[in-house]
Amino acid sequence: MPKPKKRGSNHQRGAGGQPRSVQPFSDEDASIETMSHCSGFSDPASFTEDGPEIDEEATQEDLEYKLKGFIDLTLDKSAKTRQAALESLKNAFSSKILSEFIMERRMTLTDSIERCIKKGKSDEQCAAAGLACLLCVQMGSGIESEEIFKTLGPVLKKIVCDGTASIQARQAELYSTMECLENIFTKAYQRDRDTNGVSSTHNTVLHISALLAWTLLLTICPMNEVKKKIEMHLHKLPSLLSCDDLNMRIAAGETLALLFELARETDADFFYEDMELLTEKLRALATDGNKHRAKVDKRKQRSVFRDVLRAVEERDFPTEMVKFGPERMYIDCWVKKQTYDTFKDVLGSGMQYHLQSNDFLRNVFELGPPVMVDAATLKTMKISRFERHLYNSAAFKARTKARSKCRDKRADVGEFF
Q1: Helix/strand/coil (H/E/C) assignment for every residue in the chain
Q2: Is 398 exposed, middle or buried (0-12, 13-18, 19+ CB in 10 A)?
Q3: Rg of the chain over CA atoms, in angstroms?
Q4: In which region does residue 410 sit, left (phi positive, over 0), alpha (psi from -120 to 50) or beta (all else)?
Q5: Long-range contacts of 1-10 (CB under 8 A, 24+ apart)
Q6: Quick one: which of 359, 362, 399, 394 has its CA closest to 378?
Q7: Range 311-339 burial, b when 16+ CB lie within 10 A, else e
Q8: Residue 375 near residue 385, CB atoms below 8 Å
């Protein structure tokens, strides 16, 4: 009989005291509770229709053991090891609902993230900031997320405002106050060159991220604050439509569409004085045939600005449908689109899974409690094995939570009915 593996061996340092290498989730572990570090766990292609069903409970311990190891490695002396551990945790948090596991270790994770942001360089800071976002997504909108933000907020804000910090790090850490974000993207209103004559092209990516983060925060502001921001920026934003950078033009166009949508919600008789000039500029971008631009860029720009023009001119929005498991969600306004796009950027290929199982995201998009489909109905739906896996995973989580409550003598029996 082969000897069982010693779990402690994974955390040993190599010969000569060399930094240990971080072993990411392997293809062998691409089961119900683990994922590959190189390819997204949520990729439906990685799940074939045939094959044995996976025992949910049997793999839970192995997953948690691996995650504990990655958390420990975020404290390693090697920057490369810390970054790899952060990336592996990001993959796990974006692909699974791990709120209970994280709840017990949220302070440890918060401390690790704070240390990596303070101690690390650009790439490590970006990975740590991304993990912070996923940590809050997993925790939801409760007091735990507020505690995480109170701890990490000042650190992130300091880097955002630090002109000597790398562009990549500052771009990744833009979730701060609206005032802070405004101080960044309003610099794009200025001329293409700074007063010292140095090109500001390298700051464009930072300005775009700041503008998009600010726009997201605007969607949850009270209407009186929304009115103030619209008055402050609506007449300045069109200047960004002439930017040389395609992504800046698109970000400015979509922000304008969202501002017009909000303005009309707050005031049915909203009137924009420079409407003719703005629609002329939007129409030019929607029909741009500039030979000096790449064909792919032109197609993307025309597609986006046709929608923006319709929003500004006709108050129209092209409704999109998002499918996840047996459910459907309709994106029918610019506010919802902005929110969806932001979470999709954070969660990547795990977006559909979180829409189906994450209580916080379902609350954000008003989807109600997770849908539990019985086995017979699931079979008649003829959905993929990957989608069946998502259902089984959610069902397993619900069973585990219910059993835990039942074991607690203080649990109120009425909660279960």
Answers
A1: CCCCCCHHHHHCCCHHHCCCCCCCCCHHHCCCCCCCCCCCCCCHHHCCCCCCCCCHHHHHHHHHHHHHHHHHHCCCCCHHHHHHHHHHHHHHHHHCCCHHHHHHHHHHHHHHHHHHHHHCCHHHHHHHHHHHHHHHHHHCCCHHHHHHHHHHHHHHHHHHCCCCCCHHHHHHCCCCCHHHHHHHHHHHHCCCECCCCCECHHHHHHHHHHHHHHHHHHCCCCHHHHHHHHHHHCCCHHHHHHCCCHHHHHHHHHHHHHHHHHHHHHCCCCCCCCHHHHHHHHHHHHCCCCCCCCHHHHHHHHHHHHHHHHHHHHCCCCCEEEEECCEEEEECCHHHHHHHHHHHHHHHHHHHHHHHHCHHHHHHCCCCCCCCCCHHHHHHCCCCHHHHHHHHHHHHHHHHHHHHHHHCCCCCHHHHC
A2: middle
A3: 24
A4: alpha
A5: 7/65, 10/69
A6: 394
A7: bbeeeebeeeeeebbebebebebbbbbbb
A8: no
Asked whether the beta carbons of 324 and 356 are under 8 A apart, the reply is yes
Q: Does the pLDDT at position 402 exceed 70?
A: no
- Cβ atoms of 298 and 305 within 8 Å: the answer is no
- One-letter amino acid for residue 182 of the chain: E
Strand-pair partners of 328: 323
> pTM, whole model, 2 decimals?
0.67
- Classify residue 32 as exposed, middle or buried by CB count within 10 Å of its CB (0-12, 13-18, 19+): buried
- Please give the Cα distance from 175 to 217 (Å, whole number): 9
Q: For residue 314, is pLDDT > 50?
A: yes
pLDDT (tens digit per residue) in 270-310: 999 999 999 999 999 999 877 778 888 889 999 999 999 99
Pair of tokens at residue 246 = 């395609």
Note the pLDDT tens digit of each residue in 137-160.
898 878 888 899 889 988 887 887
Instruction: Measure the CA–CA gap between 266 and 391, rounded to whole angstroms.
Output: 40
pLDDT-based confidence at 198, cuts 50/70/90? very low
User: Is pLDDT at 239 greater than 90 in this prediction?
Assistant: yes
Encoding tokens for residue 290? Answer: 């500039």
